[in-house]
Specification:
This protein has helices spanning 21-29, 44-54, 62-66, 83-92, 107-120, 134-144, 164-168, 183-187, 189-199, 290-304, 313-330, and strands at residues 10-15, 34-40, 57-58, 73-76, 96-99, 124-126, 151-159, 203-210, 221-227, 233-239, 249-254, 257-262, 265-271. The protein is an alpha/beta fold. Strands 8-9-10-7-11-12-13 form a seven-stranded mixed beta sheet. α2 links the parallel β2 and β3. α1 crosses α10. The longest helix is centred in the C-terminal third of the chain and has 18 residues, at 313-330. The protein is globular.
């Protein structure tokens, strides 16, 4: 009689026990093939409390976490300006890397991380959970199948709100040195990624950034106009001044019809060909931690099967480059 062996769960480490760490912990709890093994935070009390709450080991230093034999993959959840530095240390320790968005705030640093992971022979993954919304995946299929025809005009609007307390909750928030930007870099980088993924990396035609309602270094409103490789035009509005906060919208007008997504859910599809099937199917949007769980499951599958990362360093690099191109065009950051 033969028996089928069940592979052991992949061991994850977590660097940084801030707000997003709870999302990872919840996602790991839903994945049979994942186990949170060890965590580290520069705030020792925070790290110890998080480890105790989630049944993990508290590592007193990054070196201690990276030296843990049970850790196969490390999730980097530190301030954005430290992503590449910590991620590179993880890669050089021979551990696979999962880095929160954005990949970093600096292109040269992002490239060092990408190259370092390649040299170390480890997988580099950039969290871009918005791609896992069923509505977004359906939109990707519709565009790939050509059912909408040629894209003509794309609008992305992220009219969110962040309070004074949000920016005061951590010293790094709202700073150039560690946040790397504001409404665009931190909140709307997901939509920069979606624009590149769905329509190709665009050229920034014009942009303007402003700091209107917060006592921070970076922008709380950004407006940009794009030209995509297909010659379609597009706009992006990124805001943290839109009290009390509204749904993010991505709308596409194309030669064969139009569609609109609200918070990742496909809510409207209109095709000029009346005979075409317009059943929206599963068009929902995901809530935390659904997107992270879906991407982590993909990462685990890729590692098991020795496949490339589902969303890798170059994907993160493109989204970061688009954000920085907007800042450069606006004269906001050189």
């Amino acid at each position: 009689m033969s028996s089928t062996s069940v592979p052991a769960p992949i061991g994850f480490g977590l660097v940084g026990c801030g707000v997003i760490a709870d999302t990872y912990a919840a996602a790991f709890g839903d994945l049979d093939e994942a186990r949170l093994v060890a965590v580290h935070d520069i705030d020792e009390k925070k790290g110890e409390a998080f480890a105790a709450e989630h049944g993990a080991v508290h590592a007193g230093s990054l070196a201690e976490l990276l030296g843990h034999d049970g850790v196969d993959v490390v999730c980097v959840c530190v301030p954005s300006g430290l992503h590449a530095e910590i991620g590179l240390a993880v890669a050089q320790a021979g551990k696979h890397v999962v880095v929160e968005k954005p990949i970093d705030i600096n292109l040269a640093a992002a490239r060092r991380l990408i190259d370092g992971a390649a040299v170390a022979g480890v997988s580099l993954n950039v969290i871009s959970q918005q791609r896992y919304n069923p509505g977004v995946l359906r939109a990707k299929e519709l565009l790939a199948e050509g059912r909408l025809g040629d894209p003509l005009f794309v609008q992305a609007r992220v009219p969110w709100f962040r309070s004074r307390a949000y920016y005061e909750s951590a010293e790094w928030r709202g700073t150039w040195a560690l946040d790397g930007g504001g409404a665009l870099m931190n909140q709307s980088v997901h939509y920069a990624d979606l624009l590149c993924w769905l329509f190709g990396e665009p050229e920034v035609v014009a942009a303007h950034c402003a700091r209107l309602d917060h006592d921070i270094e970076v922008e709380d409103l950004a407006l940009a106009m794009f030209r995509f490789p297909s010659e379609a035009l597009g706009t992006l509005v990124a805001s943290t001044v839109s009290y009390p906060g509204f749904s993010a919208v991505l709308s596409v007008n194309a030669s064969g019809g139009s569609m609109e997504l609200v918070d990742g859910a496909l809510v409207a599809l209109h095709l000029k060909d009346d005979s075409a099937e317009t059943d929206l199917g599963d068009v929902s949007g995901l809530k935390m931690p659904d997107g992270h769980r879906a991407q982590l499951a993909d990462i685990i599958s890729a590692l098991r099967n020795e496949e490339p990362p589902p969303i890798g360093g170059e994907d993160g690099y493109r989204a970061l480059k688009l954000v920085l191109d907007v800042y450069r065009s606006a004269g906001w950051r050189t």
